[in-house]
């Protein structure tokens, strides 16, 4: 069972409300399926980044979809948090769990877009340059392992499984360093 699942969703180039609602519905269904099988981390890539525009709305929709799968009062219904690079995380407070039942599972969702890949690389390059100029880091200290560790920490680790929906394999700008060892379906 993967610990981190990633999906690539597509707005299909449309910008109307119906297309956005269809995209949100797809994200909600992916989150519910991920929660049902017990995968703790889901990253959702959508090229334009439109899903990041309203984390509270998306969180409500995802929570509603998960409740339709689990039932509203089911103690095993997972809690959900949303985050995106360069955007504050959204995780509303939940009711205190019954200590006799233990804490419910948690699903952490990361929203990614095409700009996250470039912006992250630019920010990391600037940081490493500044550290080198201030003699906090020598050029010999900059290695593939350091860059990989910094990228994983700042955005996410590599998904175990990446699911593409469509007839052909199109990563559509997905951050390439995140899929080196991922199985792609």
Automatic annotation (TrEMBL):
<dbReference type="GO" id="GO:0005789">
    <property type="term" value="C:endoplasmic reticulum membrane"/>
</dbReference>
<comment type="similarity">
    <text>Belongs to the UPP synthase family.</text>
</comment>
<keyword id="KW-1133">Transmembrane helix</keyword>
<protein>
    <recommendedName>
        <fullName>ditrans,polycis-polyprenyl diphosphate synthase [(2E,6E)-farnesyldiphosphate specific]</fullName>
        <ecNumber>2.5.1.87</ecNumber>
    </recommendedName>
</protein>
<keyword id="KW-0808">Transferase</keyword>
<keyword id="KW-0460">Magnesium</keyword>
<dbReference type="GO" id="GO:0045547">
    <property type="term" value="F:ditrans,polycis-polyprenyl diphosphate synthase [(2E,6E)-farnesyl diphosphate specific] activity"/>
</dbReference>
<dbReference type="InterPro" id="IPR036424">
    <property type="entry name" value="UPP_synth-like_sf"/>
</dbReference>
<keyword id="KW-0472">Membrane</keyword>
<dbReference type="InterPro" id="IPR038887">
    <property type="entry name" value="Nus1/NgBR"/>
</dbReference>
<feature type="region of interest" description="Disordered">
    <location>
        <begin position="81"/>
        <end position="106"/>
    </location>
</feature>
<keyword id="KW-0256">Endoplasmic reticulum</keyword>
<keyword id="KW-0812">Transmembrane</keyword>
<dbReference type="GO" id="GO:1904423">
    <property type="term" value="C:dehydrodolichyl diphosphate synthase complex"/>
</dbReference>
<comment type="pathway">
    <text>Protein modification; protein glycosylation.</text>
</comment>
